[in-house]
Amino acid sequence: MSASGLHVAVVGATGAVGQQMVQTLENRNFPIRKLTLLSSARSAGTKVSYNGQDIIVEEAKPESFEDVDIALFSAGGSISKLFAPEAVKRGAIVVDNTSAYRMDPDVPLVVPEVNEEDLRTHNGIIANPNCSTIQMVVALEPIRKKYGLSKVVVSTYQAVSGAGAAAIEELHTQSQDIIDGKEAKPEILPVKGDQKHYQIAFNAIPQIDKFQDNGYTFEEMKMINETKKIMHMPQLKVAATCVRLPVVTGHSESVYIELESENTTVSELQALLESAPGIVLQDRPEEQLYPMPAHSVGKNDVFVGRIRKDLDDQKGFHLWIVSDNLLKGAAWNSVQIAESLVKLGIVK
Amino acid sequence: MSASGLHVAVVGATGAVGQQMVQTLENRNFPIRKLTLLSSARSAGTKVSYNGQDIIVEEAKPESFEDVDIALFSAGGSISKLFAPEAVKRGAIVVDNTSAYRMDPDVPLVVPEVNEEDLRTHNGIIANPNCSTIQMVVALEPIRKKYGLSKVVVSTYQAVSGAGAAAIEELHTQSQDIIDGKEAKPEILPVKGDQKHYQIAFNAIPQIDKFQDNGYTFEEMKMINETKKIMHMPQLKVAATCVRLPVVTGHSESVYIELESENTTVSELQALLESAPGIVLQDRPEEQLYPMPAHSVGKNDVFVGRIRKDLDDQKGFHLWIVSDNLLKGAAWNSVQIAESLVKLGIVK
């Protein structure tokens, strides 16, 4: 920490994403004068390492946000609803990684590669989008800009770490039980607070978050609504099917898109995405080079490959998009927003 | 076996699918006078149980097919190319579960729920479609018949058993190694005969079969071409992205379709599929009822759920289709073709 930097708070510092936030702040050498780590009463007292020094996690209270410049929240929507206004009241800018404020018209929903300028319109709270949305819009935005975009149909392949540390533990325990010929005992996935739980090991569960009355899950509706908001395209056709897999970390997405312009080629899309911010192109089928979740872990990039032209529709293309859901999908995008706030002079 | 039945041969009787064929013949009480089990020289001598009696597997030779009425082939395309004509020459009807003859215009490609009548046009060989194709067309055909069908975009979630018994072993070994903190040693998947091999445990690999020059894999092109042939719809728009998962058995598919008729409702599609042959509807989101691979194992049915109307396109719908890839995807569809041959009086 340096004398001249900012006072940053991380709320939910002991969770799967919170820990990645602290680690990412360190890795990025973010200009920090003081780091305050906050949590529920239950986790208070835990020590978290930052730049070789142990910081004791404190219980979050309204007063905890006095003198804070930027507060990164990732402790569940109810905690954000409770404390984000308190932080704003005390002069902090909140970057909230829950779904609490994402669709609030007064709250910018930001992926810096796509709509960094929206940060200028903030009223104290900035929302970090859903993990599966972020990696998709990073890949789609350069395409939209150059060729126009009219339709998106995505099927996801999502890792259990999106459901927290207990879900990771459940996947490992169930995998071992099944290898040992024992029965799996599902207790958490697909949704901890829902009525039924299903085996995730060696299975695929087509439910992430609870169901809405229209038959879509909340996760699917997040992808649909957030994509339109981030890309400033209320008219964009977006459909999503979200599926949980026995993968620890790294979300994958099979995405079908329709462009506005005709006669675009695969090579043109590859060249465009290769030079686009935040993207690593991995698309050489002849060398079996394509993105995979196991190779994305620990990296900030969005990996794109398997780009194919639709065989029937001149405007149709298929892509395979992979990213570490805890980093670009959560912690890194939040820290990146904080970096943009500094860069744009919004936080001084 | 009864004195009045047929002489059936199974080629590849010791493989993952071949064993399921023998088991399915037994479960269905197929009218068998004599059962001849054939394999490569390497596996000859193995004993396989059928109706409580051990049958010794013999090395396949042209003469093995003397007096055979129906020969079920599942020993790889090169074996089919070598022996299927020999079997036909000797008066047998071949049901071939490899890709060797599927796109041959003189060979019917049959899923009995969809195009059973095509069996009448056979010239000795009948092809059994690719596993991922079969379960999809079973669900799409009733929809096509009633509402018309113009476009299909499918993303698959495929089990390793489609790549054989060694791939199942590889998934288990790798899973144990990773749980134990060791490094995974990929040797088989995604494609045994391809240059590179990748970890399948806790990962997702967007490659099944080798790549074609157009960037699609052979598996994807099989789904595209076979769907058009089986449904007699050369003009149908079909696109596929095929992905291998750490699931032992049970393929899942996220399918987006566009109908020809407008104003169809989810309830109408549910009612239609509920009474369609070979389908079990599992679609009650409010009870978290939807198809999953772990629940499909050992069953002949195609399970359909998560039926949703597209939120933008009046003609668009989304479905989630799951089936046991070794049964309806392979062994059961082959035996079902044999049953149809008897029922239609083609084999007597």
UniProtKB/TrEMBL annotation, chains A, B:
SMART domains, alphabetized: Semialdhyde_dh (SM00859)
Domain of life per record: Bacteria
Active site, UniProt feature: C131 (acyl-thioester intermediate), H251 (proton acceptor)
Residue ranges annotated for the Semialdehyde dehydrogenase NAD-binding domain, each copy included: 7-122
Sites where the protein binds phosphate: R102
GO annotation, biological process: 'de novo' L-methionine biosynthetic process; diaminopimelate biosynthetic process; isoleucine biosynthetic process; lysine biosynthetic process via diaminopimelate; threonine biosynthetic process
InterPro entries: Asp-semialdehyde_DH_CS (IPR000319), Asp_semialdehyde_DH (IPR012080), Asp_semialdehyde_DH_beta (IPR005986), NAD(P)-bd_dom_sf (IPR036291), Semialdehyde_DH_NAD-bd (IPR000534), Semialdhyde_DH_dimer_dom (IPR012280)
Metabolic or biological pathway: Amino-acid biosynthesis; L-lysine biosynthesis via DAP pathway; (S)-tetrahydrodipicolinate from L-aspartate: step 2/4; Amino-acid biosynthesis; L-threonine biosynthesis; L-threonine from L-aspartate: step 2/5; Amino-acid biosynthesis; L-methionine biosynthesis via de novo pathway; L-homoserine from L-aspartate: step 2/3
Pfam family, one: Semialdhyde_dhC
E.C. no: 1.2.1.11
Chain residues that bind NADP(+): T14, G15, A16, V17, R42, S43, S161, G162, N325
Keywords: Amino-acid biosynthesis, Diaminopimelate biosynthesis, Lysine biosynthesis, Methionine biosynthesis, NADP, Oxidoreductase, Threonine biosynthesis
Binding residue positions for substrate: Q158, R244
Catalysed reactions, as listed in the record: L-aspartate 4-semialdehyde + phosphate + NADP(+) = 4-phospho-L-aspartate + NADPH + H(+)
One term of GO molecular function: aspartate-semialdehyde dehydrogenase activity
Function, in words: Catalyzes the NADPH-dependent formation of L-aspartate-semialdehyde (L-ASA) by the reductive dephosphorylation of L-aspartyl-4-phosphate.
PANTHER family attached to this UniProt entry: ASPARTATE-SEMIALDEHYDE DEHYDROGENASE, DEHYDROGENASE, PUTATIVE-RELATED
The family this protein is said to belong to: Belongs to the aspartate-semialdehyde dehydrogenase family.
Quaternary structure (record): Homodimer.
Record-given protein name: Aspartate-semialdehyde dehydrogenase
The gene coding this protein: asd
